[in-house]
DNA sequence: TCAATTTTTCAAAAATCATTGAGATGTTTC
DNA sequence: GAAACATCTCAATGATTTTTGAAAAATTGA
């Protein structure tokens, strides 16, 4: 991930509705959710507003879409999220392990850092 | 770090000049750099422009300032960067270890994830 | 084919953000 | 105290982003 992509991703995540959509899509997993359901989850925001934010997220590489019947299903692009975390760590760790280490340690989710020779 | 803080941090990082300033400050370490030196490093941007971006970063908790003689020295707030990474991981990992694990593995910086019982 | 459903597109209005330049503030040196 | 230095504040301007509402496209079912 280069600087441009990172900036686009940060911009996409710096808006309340979009950040909430991303969280929703991450929860939803690879199957994703139809645009309508996403809108309903966002205080029933107008369809054009949701469409705007969804295409913004897609533009930033954080979501992808596929048509299924008359619905359009959006799902999170986990690779981009992963790359964004890596970007942030690369940028922030330069000689400062005290930045990354706590973040990794604070990780109370299902992620187990692969400790077997993880120096890519 | 709550949603509001995360949004502020993402917004701060989603602007080229600010992202570059953050990188510079991270490189500079805890000693930081005077505003003038930061401006000089940014293609010699005008002082008011740099001041605007620096106070934006300070507002977002990503930088702090102290006066030293006639200079004002800015330095990175590593804790916020760390929390932002943790926020992103928390959000993105929910049941999806394949997101975090590669990011952690891709970590080619000096950060060694503390593997001794790091389940805080 | 017609009507209903789902979502997008588009243009206009509103809101927010970035840059500029002038002037103000605090600090040091003489 | 005056001059020089480093940075900030403020108002004006321009640029970008967000929201809204109306209309258009794609799909399904009768």
Please give a structural write-up.
Chain A is mostly helical and 120 residues long. The first copy, chain A, has a single domain (1-113), classed as Winged helix-like DNA-binding domain superfamily/Winged helix DNA-binding domain (Arc Repressor Mutant, subunit A, Orthogonal Bundle), CATH 1.10.10.10. Chain A has 6 helices and 3 strands. Chain A has helices spanning 3-13, 16-28, 35-41, 47-59, 78-93, 97-105; strands at residues 33-34, 63-68, 71-76. The first copy, chain A, has a 3-stranded antiparallel β-sheet with strand order 1-3-2. In chain A, β2 and β3 form a beta hairpin. The longest helix of chain A has 16 residues, at 78-93. Chain A is elongated. At the A-B interface, α1, α2, α5 and α6 of A face α1, α2, α5 and α6 of B. Chain A binds a DNA duplex (30 and 30 nucleotides) through α3 and α4.
Number of continuous helical runs of chain A? 6
Give the oligomeric state of the chains in this entry, treating copies of one chain as homo and distinct chains as hetero: homodimer
CATH level 1 name of chain A: Mainly Alpha
- Architecture (CATH level 2) name of chain A: Orthogonal Bundle
Record the strand order, biggest sheet of chain A.
Answer: 1-3-2
Count of distinct strands of chain A: 3
For the record, the count of structural domains of chain A works out to 1
Q: Largest interface, and how many residues on either side?
A: A-B, 55 and 55 residues
State the major sheet of chain A.
Answer: 3 strands, antiparallel
Structural class of chain A: mainly alpha
Shape field of chain A: elongated
* CATH fold-level label of chain A: Arc Repressor Mutant, subunit A
């Amino acid at each position: 991930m280069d600087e441009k992509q990172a900036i686009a991703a940060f911009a996409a995540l710096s808006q309340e509705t979009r950040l909430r959509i991303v969280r929703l899509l991450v929860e939803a997993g690879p199957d994703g959710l139809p645009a309508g359901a996403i809108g309903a989850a966002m205080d029933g925001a107008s369809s054009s507003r949701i469409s705007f934010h969804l295409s913004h997220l897609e533009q930033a590489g954080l979501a992808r879409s596929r048509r299924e019947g008359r619905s359009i299903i959006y799902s999170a692009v986990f690779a981009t999220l992963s790359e964004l975390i890596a970007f942030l760590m690369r940028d922030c760790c330069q000689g400062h392990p005290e930045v990354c280490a706590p973040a990794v340690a604070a990780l109370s989710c299902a992620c187990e850092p692969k400790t077997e020779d993880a120096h890519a």
